[in-house]
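Lecture notes, unit on binding sites. The following record was shown on slide 14. It pairs a sequence with NDP.
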Amino acid sequence: MVAQVIDGKAFAAKVRAQVADQVAKLKEENGITPGLAVVLVGEDPASQVYVRSKGKMTVEVGMNSYEHKLDAETSEAELLALIDKLNTDPAVHGILVQLPLPKHLNEDLVINSIDPAKDVDGFHISNVGLLGTGQKSMVPCTPLGCLMMLRDHHGSLSGMDAVVIGRSNIVGKPMAQLLLGDSCTVTIAHSRTKDLPDVVRRADIVVAAVGRPEMVPGDWIKEGATVIDVGINRIERDGKTKLVGDVDYASAAERAGAITPVPGGVGPMTIACLLANTLTACCRANKLPEPEGLTA
Ligand code: NDP
């Protein structure tokens, strides 16, 4: 079997176009422009790149983008004061604090100081609890993007066996909750899992979120399974730097029914879902109907 490639880049463009349509409608019919505030503390080069591209895409879909760049020495009190201001600013519907934060700042404290209704990353403890109990929440962007691609490919996921490799708070755990919410039978695997190959071989859906280059070989994949590769790993090959996932794409694509490539799979969906979450937060804040197909 040669797998169908799930084109995350094209899918993300479709999601952004849907968001842009809804934003235009909100402006025209309600005079409201959704606003996303992104807070960056310090000069981490990767974070600077992410923040720049988030700002650019926010503006491209017609939303207002507010960038707050603070120096690496910013105190916790200063950062919390800024978040407090953004929490009460009616023009701001979504707040994202770019992680990781410099070591002297307490990430949990900072994230939990964001108004949960504006927490477009879905990391606030209230949103974690709401998602875990199947209630309306803000859903972390990367797992939401994976869910959208799976729903688009399969329609219903009900009854499917899903394995999520990785149990982080930002990807693995929320991914498992979302799959459970769609009535999959879910296994969460991690570094202590016994006989990981056997666990993965049972799965109709494999979501790999580990951070180990090409760790999952094709012969772990059940014939016809759907493989979602969240991993982004930079490796040196043939004297060149290359991005690879957590799945060995070449061998997995020979057995899977469908697979996301790296790059061009899950990655582009993450920012698209950030924009979708900002739109959702704006609709909820204004007691307007939520955009269809853009939430869990
Ligand atoms: P973390 O490092 O927080 O978590 C990694 C998980 O993998 C842990 O639960 C760990 O288990 C598990 N793990 C490590 N080694 C093994 C192993 N040998 N076998 C089984 N499980 C193992 O990573 P993240 O969840 O933050 O990210 C995972 C990957 O996804 C990274 O490559 C990251 O760059 C990428 N990513 C991509 C995004 C995108 O937009 N596409 C967004 C976010 C992340 P244990 O808990 O036991 O230590």
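Take-home: The chain has a mean pLDDT of 97.
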